[in-house]
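Quick one, tokens below:
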């Protein structure tokens, strides 16, 4: 399961917000079961809890002990003297958990990526570069091919193997322009093989994409990425002033 780093950050932020509310709410304990929202602060209190619960769910963290979670919230609202761990200790616990979780996630994702690439290339329908990029030629252009030092104009759509679109110049309604040697290695490689006017679909392995680090929050560690790339133009060099 992939952890959503953005949601984890929001979750941690909510915890900090609740802890900081200790001074305002110190000594106040209301029953959790059957509570009704009668005032604005009742609504705020419920919204804080709902936000935290939603973010815990979307992070993918499993096995959270609800009783201990609620005890931590109540202790924080009472004040530092009632906390079983200090804020610094709590941060260390969360950081250690995240480091371990990300390591396990990266290892699992790497195995999944290798399996996906093997299956995708097994039927011979996709062509392959020597580095392992799989690609399908949708349209073969007749223009020149760019060099790694060229600046190009492209339309593109990037998605995960699950079909989630994480970036699209088509959705923005504006082609992208960039030097070819300043993008992920898979792009630098595959675009040099595409004549202007071509549209290819490239399946890029993690080592030629964002690798073990990923690109949070949308791209996890060791993810295979699938790009539809339309090479529109090789741009002229910028004039030297």
């Amino acid at each position: 399961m992939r952890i959503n780093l953005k949601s984890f950050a929001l979750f941690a932020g909510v915890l900090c917000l609740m802890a900081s509310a200790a001074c305002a709410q110190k000594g106040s304990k209301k029953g959790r079961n059957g509570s009704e929202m009668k005032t604005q602060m009742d609504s705020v209190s419920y919204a804080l809890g709902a936000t935290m619960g939603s973010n815990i769910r979307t992070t993918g963290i499993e096995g959270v002990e609800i009783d201990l979670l609620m005890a931590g919230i109540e202790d924080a609202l009472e004040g530092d003297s009632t906390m079983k761990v200090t804020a610094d200790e709590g941060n260390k616990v969360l950081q250690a958990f995240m480091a371990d979780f990300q390591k396990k996630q990266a290892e699992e994702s790497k195995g999944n990526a290798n399996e996906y690439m093997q299956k995708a290339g097994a039927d011979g329908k996709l062509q392959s570069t020597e580095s392992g990029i799989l690609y399908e030629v949708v349209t073969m252009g007749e223009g020149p091919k760019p060099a790694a030092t060229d600046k190009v104009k492209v339309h593109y759509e990037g998605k995960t193997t699950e079909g989630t679109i994480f970036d699209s110049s088509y959705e923005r309604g504006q082609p992208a322009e960039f030097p070819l040697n300043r993008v992920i290695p898979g792009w630098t490689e595959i675009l040099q093989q595409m004549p202007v006017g071509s549209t290819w679909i490239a399946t890029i392995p993690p080592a030629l994409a964002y690798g073990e680090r990923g690109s949070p929050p949308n791209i996890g560690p060791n993810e295979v990425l699938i790009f539809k790339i339309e090479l529109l133009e090789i741009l002229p060099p910028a004039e030297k002033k």
